[in-house]
From TrEMBL:
Family from the record: Belongs to the pseudouridine synthase RsuA family.
Record's GO cellular component terms: cytosol
GO biological process terms on file: enzyme-directed rRNA pseudouridine synthesis
This protein's record includes keyword Isomerase: yes
Keyword Isomerase: yes
GO molecular function: RNA binding; rRNA pseudouridine synthase activity
Domain RNA-binding S4: 2-65
One Pfam family matching this protein: S4
Protein's recorded name: Pseudouridine synthase
Top-tier EC class: isomerase
Keywords: Isomerase, RNA-binding
Amino acid sequence: MERLQKVIANAGVASRRKAEQMIQDGKVKVNGKLVTELGVKVSDSDRVEVEGVELTKEVKRYFLLYKPRGVVSAVTDDKGRSVVTDYFDDIPERLYPVGRLDYDTSGLLLMTNDGEFANLLMHPKYNVEKRYVARIKGIPEKEKLQQLARGIMIEGKKTAKAKVRQLSFDKAKQKAIVEITIHEGRNRQVRKMFEAIGHPVQKLTREAYGFLDLRHLNAGESRELSHHEVRQLKSLAKFGQKPHS
């Protein structure tokens, strides 16, 4: 059961706020009866009409996008910047991102129109690993990387344990490439972690989300997930492992 305004929004008719207004304005019927109060919940078996047109049930879609830098992880942007949905103009369903990647961070981002799936993956009690590769300023000492791995205080709260390894460094240019795997999703977390040890991030890419990676994709490209991959992601979120095939 889902709230009526959410069902209308998910069908791509209008935003949730606009859908609420349409309900209050007497433009929505459920099973032939006029509904004007918010809070009504409906199931898949209920027939919903908006301004006399019956809603069609959207097919659930799941995509993996290689988000480029300089693109907002949102459906719209009030500053007129490029958003991730710009890469799905040919998809009729109303997609939105699962979580977000910073404007200046590139990499793997999931897109869907399945709210239950998105909420499952974003729920803080579920631990889906996310692997990043960061180009950082300076060459960190081993002890500093171990601090990141053990957990480090940022904004008054200690981060969970992480997997950290240095991939390469350049003494002449004073920079290093470090791979870090976390399962939390705090705002700009990876950047703040490196800032906390005195090595700010110059470039950041999310290379993997759970078992998914960017293989065979270039920035701006996407692919649809298979039914098996979707099932694996749900199991990974709930149980911390992929199901047996």
